[in-house]
Amino acid sequence: xxxxxxxxxxxxxxxxxxxxxxxxxxxxxxxxxxxxxxxxxxxxxxxxxxxxxxxxxxxxxxxxxxxxxxxxxxxxxxxxxxxxxxxxxxxxxxxxxxxxxxxxxxxxxxxxxxxxxxxxxxx
Length: 123
Hints:
The chain contains no helices and eleven strands. The protein has strands at about 5, 10, 20-25, 35-40, 45-50, 55-60, 65-70, 75-80, 90-100, 110-115, 115-120. The strands form two sheets. Strands 2, 4, 5, 6, 9, 10 and 11 form a seven-stranded mixed sheet that branches. It has a four-stranded antiparallel sheet with strand order 1-3-8-7, with no helix packed on it. The termini are far apart.
């Protein structure tokens, strides 16, 4: 049974930091690349960051320089370090796994999704 379990969400202040984790199980982890997405109320889902199985990373313009995606293949876990938080980072954050041939942040390329973890940034 495929499972992606996010954790680490919560409340943060503008300028602060949070780290999200996503533990994967039930599929051949090394054959997939991982991504983080977010969706705020009333807005479309947005791809945030992705990491390939060899460590290549890709970021949305809105988070580049502030967020860092990383993974521990031995633990089958992907992380999203979020620094310099802004109120507009407030959203439900999802991790997802893709075995598509291309390396992309397009949501339709991702086969498996977690349940999400809420991040709220406010003063």
